[in-house]
Amino acid sequence: MSPVRSPETEAAIAEVEAQLGVLFARVRTIWKDGAHAVHPDLQPVGYKLLASLVRAGSCHAGALAEQLATDKSVISRQVKLMEELGLVVSAPDPTDGRARILTATPEAVEKINIIRDRNQAMLRSRLDDWTGDDLTRFATLLARLAE
């Protein structure tokens, strides 16, 4: 049974939902633009995967699927495309011949880092006038929401 909420609380929850929708739409646009900046044939999900691979370093496809809460088949298709585009190399895991270790190519790392620097600069400019306490509280609230 869900708790009884005041009309003000219900309205606030609805506004949070609406603002998250706006934020997610902007994030999807950033992924789409980032994908195109890396390679015109790269899809946004491929950009998300590649950016995660650059951040994490070499890893198994299964680990990426788990980290991104994505089906392994999606990862496989994207890895195949990214290999064809020269963005990722895949090598057998020396400890488990069935598994593959993925590594972003130097070109992909460079492009992702340029895009990431640009995105972080944009975020910093939007948060410049926030106090340290505001930023800490915001990060804490986001972490609570993601739990």
From TrEMBL:
Record-level GO BP terms: response to stress
Entry keywords, A to Z: DNA-binding, Transcription, Transcription regulation
Keyword Transcription: yes
Boundaries of every HTH marR-type domain copy: 6-147
InterPro entries attached to this UniProt entry: ArsR-like_HTH, HTH_MarR-typ, MarR/SlyA-like, Tscrpt_reg_MarR-type_CS, WH-like_DNA-bd_sf, WH_DNA-bd_sf
GO terms, molecular function: DNA binding; DNA-binding transcription factor activity
Entry protein name: HTH marR-type domain-containing protein
Origin species: Microterricola viridarii
Keyword Acetylation: no
